[in-house]
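Can anyone check this?
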Amino acid sequence: MTIFDRSLQLAKVDLAPNHRQPSILRVVLATAISLAGSLGVDAALVAIGVAVFPSTSGYVHFQFHDYAKLTVIGVIMACVAWPIVTRISSAPRWLFFRLAILVTIVLWLPDLYILAKGQPARAVAVLMCMHLAIALVTYNALVHVAPIRQGTQGGAAGNGARPNG
């Protein structure tokens, strides 16, 4: 077994899951819920951040158009990734959860960079909370609204299998 094969095994990537993909309709619904929920939680966190830290009022990254475009891009990417993960792993929730943690940590790097460049620590803390909240909203919407379905990939489409989760 090569190191590549061992890495795939540790990551639970086996390319032969024993479940069916989430339905496209459910993925679209989960995407809409993720977008609305993430933008809503962003707005709430900005409002809370400004209320708790009045010095952050007017902070450039707290403008809706500034954070909304990045939120939409990130959520869409995660929502595209979920069906891919469900296709390549027999333990997609396990893998997707760890990927969500990894992506959140990676997305904190620019926050830490702007903090190091002199941006207000309280405002950056709110941005970091926004990244975490978006990950939580999106992960939960996807795995609960668009869960994998029982049955095998190849022939269970008409067997009346009910969704997992």
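Reply from J.R.: I decoded it. Residues 24-52 form the longest helix (29 residues).
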